[in-house]
Amino acid sequence: MAGKTLFDKIWDAHVVDKIKGGPSVLYIDKHLIHEVTSPQAFAGIDSRGISVFRPEQTVATPDHNVPTVDQHLPIKDELSRFQVNKLTENCEKHGVTLYGLNHPYQGIVHVIGPELGITQPGMTMVCGDSHTSTHGAFGSVAFGIGTSEVEMVLATQCILQPKPKKMRISVEGELSEGVTAKDVILYIIAKITASGGTGYFIEYAGSAIRDLSMEGRMTICNMSIESGARGGLIAPDQTTFDYVKGREFAPKGEEFNQAVEKWRKLKSDDDAVFDKELVFEAADIEPMITYGTNPGMGAKIKDHIPTVEEVDPATRESYKKSLAYMGFEPGSPIEGREVDYVFVGSCTNGRIEDLREVVKFVKGRRKADQVTAWIVPGSKQVEKQANEEGITAALEASGFKLRQPGCSACLAMNDDKIPEGKLAVATSNRNFEGRQGPGSRTMLASPLAAAAAALTGRVTDPRNIN
What we know:
By secondary structure, the protein is α/β, with parallel strands linked by helices. It is built from 16 helices and 19 strands. The longest helix is centred in the first third of the chain and has 17 residues, at about 80-95. The radius of gyration is 21 Å and the shape is globular. It starts with 5 loop residues before the first helix and ends in a 10-residue tail after the last helix.
């Protein structure tokens, strides 16, 4: 009998029941909620006269709708204010832990889970947000769910879910100087396309993945969904254990040691069989950026935008439409394009390591005058660290300004919108039409490439700045 994959081990251990010819009833260890997808779910359980089944396994925080300036004042936007207030009411009513605005633990849900030690290896985790796959970096099965499924988990702590197929993507070798985890995942998605992971849960492996920090691994798993995959995960190792140790809600003392012994077994067996396997060489990866309107339309910054002839004939019409929206010509250079906005933040790249990378790069230099740059920490804890480490002061000396925590311009459900027609280099995860504001244009890149664009006012390979 063939060995089991890491995904199989976690999934199978959480199956409560199987419906013949249908989905599994999967037990959920940790349910994360925010203000956008939870109001209807709470209304649903209220209408049935039931309460949250296991409130101690649910954690809430507002992130999508919150403003990133003047968070001490009432939220101006009526819908945003209503949703945030409703989250507070629902959590109070049902005994759910809430880290509300101005709480020291508030932040983007996928940033606070790991930094608080809520996210741990071997768990099943869900949230009404597609980028829940971020938590897979710890060796957990984590995926986004819809509003009706949020209601199901609140009511039963279980979810009906078909078991996905399994893919393993290995990146072997050492990454070159100036190449980051964001470049790795943009490279992978450009290679397999924005639908190449459809139907799969991806395990990332290989020496280049093992060499990444936990925050780098979170960036990789975060964008698994952008390849169409159900989620992504990475086997836990000493890097994982060292990161989790000592965090607020992580096991303590002997309990932690016992947990690590269990976590060490969370890896794919040597003879485990995957439905699909892909291998990439780290040496082939360079600083990347997107040029179109889905995350699969990416290329090396130093390359040109593909010509129509270089694109799959089946996608040529949508390709031309995408470039027309972006205002780009097929075959033209990517580097050197004028940039209006730079956004560093989101659940993809709003962690302390990302801010450290940016400040190290820009310190002693000045931001280009014509660029509006938003640096948005992913949580209050990241904001606090940035202040304590002198990152905030150094960024301000270079002409940047640190805003307050939230999803910000990643999806423009708040006041941080890129104006129509303006071009932004963003460290977020999606570049769909109007994603960052009606008529806005987005190029996805690493924090280093975003910092380089902020300094030069143009799309720039960060390796070209000495």
